[in-house]
């Protein structure tokens, strides 16, 4: 699990300590946490504090002030709760014009029934209820941070390895790594927030090799934070691609944008050349971007393929959906207009869905790296034992 940057805010009439200079943007507060000194039962971590320090320096370069004045390290349950509560209070005092940034590096885990947890430092020897009761749920964290009005960036740099703890009896977690989509609770309490996980749900994040001082996620994030003019969405997309390259396509971060329309183009570092009125010759400026001829554009679009799956469950009088087929037709028409070759499935059975997905993969593979694939599903979805499923055509199962 990964760290946090924290900023403390005084009375609103006072100058914001360490804030960017007037005219450079709104006040910025960060909470950065690095937990490493876990007991042998959990498994100590080597690079989390180094990573927290690296990210905190980059955030200060972006005009952020650290809550508490420095990186918070090796927090117990009480320390973690107090840090988040203090950060939330100070951030709320900034108001809607500020920017918040939360970074956590350390251990995380998924309970098969209760959702996702950040694990504080403590002497845990068994994977039992004591560990889970002392840990902090992600829902609690998101609800606290989601209560403030300003845009917020949340980095969960966790799941460095599988927990070493043995289960005392009934298997409560089985050493499962962190799963970021296990619980949907608190979803409505995450407004104006951008969330980035160091790895995809159910997967492990690297702590770096034996000679590395930083994990690959922190390395990629630090290398992108100071990018001028890059929106938060583009920044973390570049982080995702960089981590994939650093880990040989093994570790893939997962990004979720809950930013409002007003904040969707939020950038941590402005494009200084554009602000000064200078139009350079590099590819950041529209005047120098590559122009494709109409023929080339048509050729590129011909490589794009879409699979649309629409289920209305018309044979099930209780659960039939009225608008899915018309909605899917609107999407299909828009994609055709945009140059996609569309394969539309209406009320397909499971075997038909799987066969067409395989065909799409083969088509995109043959088309090469320049191709774009799109899958659109409309119908019922469900969750069973923490895994997410789409429901094929036919009667909806009662159990």
The count of strands amounts to: 15
Question: What is the rounded distance between the termini?
Answer: 35 Å
Give the integer mean of the pLDDT values: 79
Rg over CA atoms, rounded to whole Å, is 23 Å
Specify the number of helices: 10
Strand proportion, as a percent range, falls in 15-25%
Biggest sheet character: 7 strands, mixed
Task: Name some characteristics of this structure.
single chain; 399 residues; alpha/beta; 7-stranded mixed β-sheet; 3-stranded antiparallel β-sheet; 10 helices; 15 strands; globular; disordered N terminus
Q: Brief description of this entry?
A:
The protein is α/β, with parallel strands linked by helices and 399 residues long. It is built from 10 helices and 15 strands. Helix 1 links the parallel strand 1 and strand 2 (65-66).
Structure description:
Helices cover 29% and strands 18% of the residues. It has 399 residues and is α/β, with parallel strands linked by helices. It is built from ten helices and 15 strands. The chain is globular, with a radius of gyration of 23 Å. The strands form four sheets. Strands 1, 2, 3, 4, 8, 9 and 10 form a seven-stranded mixed β-sheet that branches. The protein has a three-stranded antiparallel β-sheet with strand order 5-6-7. It has a three-stranded parallel β-sheet with strand order 12-11-13, sandwiched between helices. Helix 1 packs parallel to helix 5 (216-224) and helix 5 (216-224) runs antiparallel to helix 6 (232-246). It has helices at 48-61, 77-94, 129-134, 138-145, 216-224, 232-246, 272-275, 294-301, 324-337, 350-367; strands spanning 28-34, 65-66, 72-73, 99-105, 108-111, 115-118, 136-137, 152-157, 193-197, 254-258, 305-310, 341-346, 373-378, 381-384, 387-390. Residues 1-24, 167-187 and 273-298 have low confidence and may be disordered.
């Amino acid at each position: 699990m990964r760290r946090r940057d924290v900023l403390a805010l005084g009375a609103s009439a006072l100058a914001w300590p360490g804030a960017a200079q007037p005219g450079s943007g709104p006040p910025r507060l960060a909470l950065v946490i690095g937990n490493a000194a876990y007991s042998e039962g959990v498994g100590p971590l080597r690079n989390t504090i180094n990573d927290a320090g690296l990210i905190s320096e980059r955030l200060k370069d972006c005009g952020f002030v650290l809550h508490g004045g420095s990186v918070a390290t090796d927090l117990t349950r009480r320390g973690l709760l107090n840090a988040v509560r203090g950060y939330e209070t100070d951030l709320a005092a900034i108001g809607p014009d500020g920017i918040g940034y939360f970074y956590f590096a350390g251990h995380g885990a998924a309970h098969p029934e209760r959702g996702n947890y950040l694990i504080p430092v403590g002497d845990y020897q068994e994977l039992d209820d004591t560990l889970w009761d002392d840990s902090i749920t992600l829902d609690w964290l998101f609800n606290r941070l989601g209560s403030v009005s300003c845009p917020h960036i949340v980095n969960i740099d966790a799941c460095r390895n599988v927990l070493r703890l043995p289960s005392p009896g009934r298997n409560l977690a089985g050493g499962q790594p962190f799963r970021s989509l296990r619980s949907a609770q608190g979803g409505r309490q995450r407004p104006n927030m951008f969330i980035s996980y160091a790895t995809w749900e159910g997967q492990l994040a690297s702590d770096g090799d034996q000679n590395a001082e930083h994990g690959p996620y922190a390395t990629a994030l630090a290398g992108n934070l100071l990018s001028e003019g890059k929106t938060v969405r583009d920044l973390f997309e570049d982080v995702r691609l960089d981590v994939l390259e650093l880990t040989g396509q093994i570790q893939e971060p997962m990004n979720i944008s809950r930013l409002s329309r007003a904040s969707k183009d939020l950038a941590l570092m402005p494009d200084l050349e554009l602000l000064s009125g200078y139009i350079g010759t590099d590819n950041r400026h529209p005047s120098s971007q590559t122009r494709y001829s109409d023929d080339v554009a048509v050729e590129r679009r011909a490589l794009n393929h879409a699979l649309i799956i629409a289920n209305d469950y018309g044979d099930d009088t209780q659960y039939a959906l009225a608008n899915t087929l018309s909605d899917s037709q609107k999407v299909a028409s828009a994609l055709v207009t945009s140059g996609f070759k569309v394969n539309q499935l209406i009320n397909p059975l499971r075997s038909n869905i799987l066969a067409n997905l395989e065909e799409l993969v083969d088509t995109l593979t043959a088309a090469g790296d320049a191709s774009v694939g799109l899958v659109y599903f409309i119908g019922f979805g469900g969750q069973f034992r923490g895994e997410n499923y789409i429901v094929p055509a036919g009667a909806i199962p009662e159990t």
